[in-house]
Structure formats: C-alpha cells, structure tokens
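Question (not urgent): is this output format expected?
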Amino acid sequence: MAVPLDGSAGYNLIKAYIAENGAPTVFNTTLVMDYSYTGKTWIIGYDDRQSITTKVLYAKRKGLLGYFAWNAGIDVQLSI
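Got this back:
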C-alpha cells in the first residue's frame, strides 16, 4: 500500500488494499470501529458504513450532541 508522505490513508486507499490483498476486516464492537490486516500489515482504526451508522444511532438514542468518526472525506465513490 503506497501511503502518502503524511502517513494518512484515505478510505479509498484502505478499501483498495483490502480488496487487492484479500485482507479480512474486523468490526470491533467495543470501540465501534473497523480494522484489517494481512500478515504483519495492520490497518488500524477506520470507519465504514456500519461503524458510522452505529455511532450516529447511539448518539441520537442518548441525546448526545455529537460523535466521532474517522475522516471519510476521501471516499470518492460515496460508499459511506
């Protein structure tokens, strides 16, 4: 995976890596986030449709004024 010099990996780059490498993805229900890995390469802490939906619904049910989600701004295919 070619990571930009600033160390960031946008959603599209993460999804491409997962698809190209057949990397399993794991939804962590405690942290409400995803991670993926292949061998010694780990992609730690990204959000997808499931994690963002879970966070938003939780915030609404609890009457919270906000929630946190990793930047999904590089989702050029608008899949989130």
